[in-house]
Amino acid sequence: MTLPRSLKRLGIVLHRSKNTGNLILRAEFAPKVGEKVLDSRLKVVGSVFDVFGPVSRPYVSVRPTVERPESYQGKPLYMAG
Predict the structure, then answer these.
(1) CA–CA dist 45, 64 (Å, integer)
(2) What global pTM score does this model have?
(3) How confident is the model over 40-71, as pLDDT tens digits?
(4) R_g of the chain, CA atoms, integer Å
């Protein structure tokens, strides 16, 4: 599937946090907190809740807005822009 040029790959979902239920990604860049996160079908999965870890390859916590967020484990997520 080819994605629109305006999409930027955020990273791959590593797991879902047991404490918060947020999706944890190893990001390819540091996004801004509050930005919307999309899947490959351009469906909004959630928004960036926190950015942490090393500046060169940060981790991102995404607060999901979908019913089955665990189904995104191992899949790439994207950001518009």
Answers:
(1) 6
(2) 0.89
(3) 999 999 999 999 999 888 999 999 999 999 99
(4) 11
